[in-house]
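[Q] Does anyone have a clean structure-token version of this?
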Amino acid sequence: MIAEHLILGKQGEEIAASRLKELGWTILDRNVSFRGGELDIVALDGDELVVAEVRTRSEGWMQRGEESVGPRKLGRLVLAGRQYVDRRGWQGPWRIDILAVTVGSDGSAALERFEDVTAGAYFS
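[A] Here you go.
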């Protein structure tokens, strides 16, 4: 039996990937694992590589999806993102976005995108 939150998370990732494709983005990879982290979606937004962290919540949940990504998680995303660009030999710009998916009790879904969430931040 699969835990309900894992099913919801997978549903959120499918919704997010679908919306990114609608925006004209190219999905390069999904669920890429690295030591110390995982990248949910890696895509191209024009000529910029985007590491997209998907957070899915049911409507009415106490904490919004974007609020659940704290400094520790951001640090892991930066590390995994660096490993990804190094492994792929990516030379262009890249950023980290948070995609917050809220699923209603009727199955409807809303997506909010928070672009370049580490802009100006320094991670060693």
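[Q] Thanks! Anything notable?
[A] Strands lie at 26-34, 37-45, 48-58, 94-103, 109-114.
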